Each structure stands twice: as structure tokens, then as C-alpha cells.
Amino acid sequence: MSSGPNSPSNIHIALDVMGGDAGPDVMLQGLRQARETGFDAEVTLHGRQADIEAALEAANITDRVPAIAPAEDVVTMEDKPTDALRRRRGSSMWQAIAQVKEGNAKAVVSSGNTGALMAMSVLQLRKIEGIDRPAIGALWPTVSSRCVVLDVGANVEVSANQLVQFAIMGEAYARALFGHDRPSVGLLNVGAEELKGHGLIQTAAKILREADPEMAFIGFVEGNDISKGVADVVVTDGFSGNIALKTAEGTARMVGGWVKDTLTANLRAKMGAALMMGALKDLKQKMNPSRANGAPLLGVNGLVIKSHGGADADGVAAALMTALALAKHPYLEEIQRTVAKVNRRVESGAVADLDGHDLAKAAQ
Amino acid sequence: MSSGPNSPSNIHIALDVMGGDAGPDVMLQGLRQARETGFDAEVTLHGRQADIEAALEAANITDRVPAIAPAEDVVTMEDKPTDALRRRRGSSMWQAIAQVKEGNAKAVVSSGNTGALMAMSVLQLRKIEGIDRPAIGALWPTVSSRCVVLDVGANVEVSANQLVQFAIMGEAYARALFGHDRPSVGLLNVGAEELKGHGLIQTAAKILREADPEMAFIGFVEGNDISKGVADVVVTDGFSGNIALKTAEGTARMVGGWVKDTLTANLRAKMGAALMMGALKDLKQKMNPSRANGAPLLGVNGLVIKSHGGADADGVAAALMTALALAKHPYLEEIQRTVAKVNRRVESGAVADLDGHDLAKAAQ
């Protein structure tokens, strides 16, 4: 398909088809599906030649057949990041990232080992200047739309400065993906009486308010605010973020199971379910986790999109669409610019602590 | 009703009927409902005499009318704990707790200000020896049953020792409530590759394994394991726990909203919903947050049950049933005994760190 809803983009994406739980077949079915909904980037497939050829045939991709960049080695899910860096430079993952480094591709998409993908990306592409450590942002369904939550697992311990950096990266990501000019940003906190969270959250909030007045920072939000859609971007450390994300997934799965039980509880219920078939299809679509697949490694100086290891074709298609949306947007430059601006303001002493403390020091 | 499924318990419970968002009416409707499902404790009602008399009449409680302990002052939701301690000693909350202190009641139940309830309870009843700070445990629905998650908000920053204490308190609570001899206990952690959580979680796991081999400690669990029912007790710090709890509530509400939309999407769907009425009633019951209402202030040397400020009559009834279950069980003594045992073993040096570090020091 050469004509999607968008005009052909001339954007090139490197697709690592190995490494996910399901393998090249699912990756290429995902590509086929993405094309059917307007994905118009050029793609190069990285992986074992024979596997790719078989998968292309299985997915029945005969039009605009992507180029194959053969790589015999594969990063496994068991590889430790440090080992992958040492021993997997002949892998499809390494070579796909190299395409971005060399300017041949604008983005890389992989369903492989997250730790290895992060380590290889940071080594080859480096971090954005002013970013201490990259973060992983998750797309989160809300009652009305979607939001971004970060970090969801890359950084279990963070400084106030890192929370500020997460806010800046999440804002740029949300702007690229949702098309809002000024996405709202909230800091995740607890809401019980007399508890106002860690000191570092207070410091991060202060810096965001004072040093980045251009950001639509709405202050603290609570766990139940995420799915309410109170903020376009919810910022937290990787420990709480990972727990929140997995807890939400578990809860949705449990409630989904209860709904299924309800629909099949007895003959009358089954008849009722048959009557509401159309509406149930919408519900199933809303609850499909594939919709939210595709998380950029934020803070890496290049576009690297992590697709879930167990993603299905729908999920891979969503990750490819995210890669394309980000590739069309100057979001890396925005992060660079905003981080530099905020750091300048904090270091110049323009941001004073309420108690006169050195905020630049407290934030480290 | 003097005959429930249990024999009359001769247990006395002090019920603070003021302070919740809904007031004495809901508290007494809750009492009425609890009695209908076997709640056989004696109850004294603490609060404004006129309000209580009106609420007794509204709830139509004419049999076994509880005694009234008049208290004209009320702790408000806005009171800071420190202010409440200073200025609210004439309040229903303070006086209800005093009943436990003086041995006139076995437990107190209140829907009032959590911070004030905690502060007043610690001041009057003291903490259990060996417990650094009390915690709040939440009942959490799982696919097959329920589990306890703690802490969910009292302690945003914790030591490894405190996580160990939470585990011990949660285990005793689950034993009293679920009737398992050896409830399984898990430590909440992140599951991404190469991330094994904070050092203090590692230390806590080590202590639990080595110093409390009697506990059915199953190691680390992830956010999605909570609703799967992987552990009877899930231990975490109050920051992550509060976020997990509220995120789960938000997710359940969002999915519930989607289900409602599905059932009313169009005429066919509405007809279908009418057919499955019975099954939907079960679903509604499963999703009713009132089922999980009633959280003991764990670590306080006396039974104090916090009911949600916005609890309905169902919720108040659940909190009263929890109070009665705990009052019938030697769970305070169990916590005392286990904490003393574990502390003894850690301090004797019987628990060695893998690297030979002083675990007793690392845990503080």
C-alpha cells in the first residue's frame, strides 16, 4: 500500500524482527497490519534471512517488500545487558540500532530483551545531553483517551533532577503522540492525610514550577487520577511506576475475567451476550492491551521503540505507528532544548527553595 | 438479633459514629446490616447524643439498643494530627480509643480522619514492642479470594526492618481474617530485566528467609501478582502501596464504566443486559469496594479499625465484621511474639549477609 491517510513519509525504520517471544511471523503480520492503517515508512528487516523470508511469505507481504539486512546472531531474553554488549554485536538488535546511528534509519523497533536494547542504544546512540538516565514511558488508557506514565521500570531509584527530566521527556513524547500543544503534567504522589510524599518529590515539583513555567504542570496526582485522565503525563520513579502499571494490568485482567464469567454464567446470560455482540466488540477493543504497545526509550539520543516481548500483530502495528509519529516530530530536539533551559535556570540560582536551601544541590 | 451464626461473643466494640463523610446515619445503618449477618458484639456508640438518637431511629434499631457515650466534640477531616492530639481530647474518637485503653472495649471502629486516628491510637495505646511505626493494611480482592496489602499509606519511607515488621503484622492479620495457618507472604518488587529493586528490599527478603523460617515467605511478587492471589500478604512501602491501591481502584472504576457503557450501548444491548440480570448482580457485588472496607492500624497495641471516610452501610458492616474477627483472635500477641523472635535472631548475628555485611545495621 503506497497511499495511506498520510502522504508517503520517506521515513526509514529499522525493524528488529528477532528476539520477541513470538518471532518474525508476528512482527511481519504487525507490519502488514500497520500498513493497512496508514503506516507509510520504508522498513528494513533485521534478522535471520531464512526466517525472514519464511515470515514474509506467511504474512503474504508481496507488495513493497522490505529490504532484508541479514544478521545471524540474536539477543535472547536471558542475555544480561552487559553480556549482550560484549557478545552480541553481530545480532539483529545491535545492527538495527546501528542503522539509526549511521543515519540510515530514523527509528528502530524491537520486541527483544529490554535491558539489552537499553544498553545497546545508550552505547551506540548516547544519551541526550542533560539527561542522567533514560526512562521508559508507558501509554495508559484513560476514560476519555490515553496518557503517558514514566518511568515504568528503568530506574528504581531516582533523584529530584531525574523526575524533572522525566517530566520534560514525557511532555515532549505526549506532544508528539497526542498532538496537544501543552500537555498537562502531574507528579504521582500519595494522598493520605499528613503525607505529602518524599522530599525529592517536593523538590522536583518546586523545580518544575519555577524553572519551567512554560510546562502545564498541574502538581501532584494520585494513583486513581491516572485512568481518570487528570494529566496527559504522569511522572514517577521506576519502582512505583512499574508497580502501578502491573497492578493496573492485573486489575483489568481480573475484572475482565469477572465480566467474561458474567456473560457465560447461564443460558439467559449467554443469550444476552449474543444480543450485545456489537457493543461487546467495542469493549474488547478498549480492553486490548495491544493498543498501548510501543514504548520509546526516552532520553536516548535517537528513536528506539520497545515493543512488548509478547506483543501480537496488533501490538506490533501499534509500536510501528508510534515509531512513525515520533519520527515525524522534532521531539528529541524539544527534550534537548527544554532540559538545557531548565538546567540553566536551576544552576543560575533563579530557583530558590522555600527555606532558602540550595535547590540545585538538593535535586541531585 | 441476638442469635447470629456465631454464639454471642461477649466482645465489646467502641464505635465512633462521628467524623465520616456520611455521619452517624450511615454508621448505624452499617451496624444494623452487620447484625443481620452475624455480628454479635456489644457496641457503645461515641458521638453527639442528639445525632445518635436521631440516627438510631432512622436506622430503626429498637432491639439491643447500644449504649451511648456522649461526646460533644468531633475530629474533623481537616484537623492535623498534632492539632487533634492537642485540642480534641473531648472528641468521640479520643473517647472511643480510651475505652480500649481502659479495657472496657476490645476494639474501636472509626470512619474519621486517618492521621488523627493513628496519632491518638499511638498516644493512648502505644505501639507493640519491637514495631517502629504502625502500618495500614488494605484488603484486596483477588480472582479467587482476597489478600492483604500493606503498607498503603502510613509510611512513605521505610527501612528494611520496617518491611520485615510489615510482613509479620500482615501475616498475623491474614491468619486472623482468612483462617489460614500459614498465610503466604510476598515482597512487592519490579520485574524488569536486570532490576531487582532497592537494596533495602533485598535486605528485608534476606531477613525474612533466615530469621523467620516459620513464615511461608515466597519471595518477590510483582504488581500483577496481587490480584492473581499469588500471596495472601503483599508487603511494600507506604508510597508504592498507596499508589498501587489507588491505581487499582481507578482501573476497576474505568473498566466498570466501560462495562456499563456496553450494557447500555443500544436497545439490543439493553435487552441483553435485562436477560443477564442475575449474573450482573453477582458482578456488581464482586466490584463493590465496600466488601474490602475496614483496615486495622497494624502495630498499634490495641485493635483500631479504620473505616473509609466515604464508606456506605455495606462498608461499615464489613469494618465491624473485621473488628470482630480480629477481636476473637490473639493476633496482637502473635505479632509481639514473632517480632521479638526475629529481632532476637537478627541481633544475635545468626543472620549473615551474603557478603558478610552486618545485616542488623543494614536493616535500620
UniProtKB/TrEMBL annotation, chains A, B:
Pathway: Lipid metabolism; phospholipid metabolism. Homodimer. Probably interacts with PlsY. Keywords: Cytoplasm, Lipid biosynthesis, Lipid metabolism, Phospholipid biosynthesis, Phospholipid metabolism, Transferase. One of its GO terms (biological process) is fatty acid biosynthetic process. It catalyses: a fatty acyl-[ACP] + phosphate = an acyl phosphate + holo-[ACP]. The lineage of its organism: Bacteria, Pseudomonadati, Pseudomonadota, Alphaproteobacteria, Parvularculales. It comes from the Bacteria. Pfam families: FA_synthesis (PF02504). Its EC number is 2.3.1.274. GO terms for molecular function: phosphate:acyl-[acyl carrier protein] acyltransferase activity. This is Phosphate acyltransferase. Catalyzes the reversible formation of acyl-phosphate (acyl-PO(4)) from acyl-[acyl-carrier-protein] (acyl-ACP). This enzyme utilizes acyl-ACP as fatty acyl donor, but not acyl-CoA. Gene3D superfamilies: Isopropylmalate Dehydrogenase. HAMAP family: PlsX (MF_00019). It comes from Parvularcula bermudensis (strain ATCC BAA-594 / HTCC2503 / KCTC 12087).
